[in-house]
Amino acid sequence: MTSWKLGLTATLLAAAAGAAPAPAVAGDVIRVNGSGSALDMLKPLVLAYAASHRLERFQLDPPLGSSGAMKALLGGALDVAALSRAVLPQEAAGGVRALAYGRTPLVIVTHREVARSSVDSAELERIYSGATPTWPGGEPIRVVLRPMAETKTAVLRGLSPGMARADDIARARPWAIVAVTDPESNELVARTPGAIGAATLTSILVEGLPLRPLALDGVPGTVEALAQGRYRLATDITLVTSARSSPEALAFVEFACSAEGRALARKSGVLTEAGGCGELR
């Protein structure tokens, strides 16, 4: 793992920007949270913005997840929620502004010692269902799942009807491994011999995850392949603010949607919306 920590504090970011840290007070910190992968995408943008706006400080705590971040935003505890999905109707009723930011490939990943570079959809179904219980070298395969309500679970199950059935079989096993958050999932795959799971490209790149990414059906999970319509798995990234978000937070979101911000996001594994962020109705 890299030195990025999810408890990225206002003080650390002020130091990274070259400014002397100052005590944070109410209304003095841009509070951002969301899914682990969306927060990973924002980290380089936060550092770039902090470097040019020395008075701006950020609070990025461990990820609450998309739903948890939306509850915090609606409750006034956050300025910006970064989601891996669209805003739900009941959330939109709270008077939020949602911007479609982009998509990042959801990549099939394994423990780094698994001697594979690709997997096809049919084989992935057999792995999840248990029909293929070991890797070619004899190492037992350990599938790392996400909760059923998690966006990445829906994306993976949407690969095919067979994949949805295989996922059902995998999570019905008494020994099923289910990781609640993105960082937990990535950590489990990284430290569990023979493990397989899924991670977003933005997390792989920004966090420098010690994982082995696999091409799917011969297509690597890259921004270019996603843009060309050749790669099939991806999660959305949505930036959300509320009427209580500070002017400083709104200015940061404007930066994220600018050409400079989108270029940084693309380097971090995100296919951003052409021409800027589109407001979702």
From TrEMBL:
The keyword Translocase does not apply. It comes from the Bacteria. Coiled coil: none annotated. The keyword Signal applies. Keywords: Signal. Gene3D superfamilies: Periplasmic binding protein-like II. Residues 1-26 form the signal peptide. It holds the Pfam family PBP_like_2. Residues 24-260 form the PBP domain. PANTHER family: PERIPLASMIC PHOSPHATE BINDING COMPONENT OF PHOSPHATE ABC TRANSPORTER, PHOSPHATE-BINDING PROTEIN PSTS. This is PBP domain-containing protein. It comes from Anaeromyxobacter diazotrophicus.
